[in-house]
TrEMBL record:
This is Cytoplasmic protein. Residues 4-248 form the Putative glutamine amidotransferase domain. Pfam families: GATase1_like (PF07090). It comes from the Bacteria. PANTHER family: BLL2462 PROTEIN.
């Protein structure tokens, strides 16, 4: 079954300052991290729409009708502020739409939501992702920490698979390549934890109303997901494909 997937986030702008003696100048670059995930899902026949991070505040779907164009919504390395603070709200102090409330209602009505880890996922770097303070928190199969939730694993660590038979893992066999970090969360009683990292949830899924939600608490691209994981491992497409297909029902 072909699913239509919206991926919000997974892009950033980097600005560097170059200092050469008494002179300095700055350069800027635009980077996307979505390509491994996009390739994996499109390779399984799904239709993928990528909404880069800088467009999320203005263009993320704001109501059930707009969300109805998709079967699965993926939030990856994009904080709650970017979804809540549309330009008219933040810059003009004009009431707008409650997009996280709309997303919650869409999942409850049968949609599928996946949150992927990163510095601006879950609670995130210096707690700036801030999803714990939003209505979307209750949709996730995990409970979020009130503080910076990142766990850096510079030496790498391998996932421990608890439910290899669950369809959301795509039938992956054998050892997973090491990951370099993740967001620490706590599983809800209603959740199925399919894989762990350092004994914390890595992949967890749950039902929410008539819909489904899932988390992958590490990254889908570098730096937490090094190239042996997201480019060289054939299990990458099977895991993310399995999660999306389970979410789509």
């Amino acid at each position: 079954m072909v699913s239509r997937v919206l991926i919000a986030g997974e892009s950033w702008v980097t600005q560097s300052t170059h200092i050469k003696g008494v002179d300095s100048f700055t350069t800027s670059s635009y980077v996307t991290g979505v390509e491994p995930l996009r390739r994996a899902l499109e390779g399984r026949g799904h239709e993928v729409v990528h909404l880069p991070a800088h467009l999320v505040p203005a263009e993320f779907p704001g109501d059930a009708d707009a969300l109805a164009a998709y079967d699965v919504v993926v939030l990856s390395d994009i904080g709650a502020n970017s979804l809540q603070l549309a330009p008219e709200v933040f810059e003009q102090a004009t009431p707008g739409t409650d997009r996280l409330g709309a997303l919650r209602g869409w999942v409850a009505a049968g949609g599928g939501l996946l949150m992927i880890g990163g510095y601006l996922s879950f609670t995130g770097f210096e707690a700036k992702a801030a999803f714990r303070n939003t209505v979307l928190h209750e949709v996730l199969p995990v409970e979020l920490l009130p503080e910076d939730d990142r766990v850096e694993l510079p030496a790498g660590a391998r996932a421990a698979v608890a439910r290899a038979d669950h369809p959301a893992l795509g039938g992956v066999d054998g050892e997973w390549p090491p990951l370099l970090g993740y967001n620490r969360v706590r599983p809800r009683r209603s959740a199925d934890v399919l894989a762990t990292l350092n004994d914390d949830p890595l992949v967890a899924v749950a039902h929410y109303g008539a819909g489904r939600s899932a988390v992958f608490t590490s990254d889908c691209s570098p730096h937490w997901a090094p190239k042996p994981f997201c480019e060289a491992w054939d299990g990458y497409a099977r895991v993310f494909g399995g999660i999306v297909e389970w979410l789509a029902g």
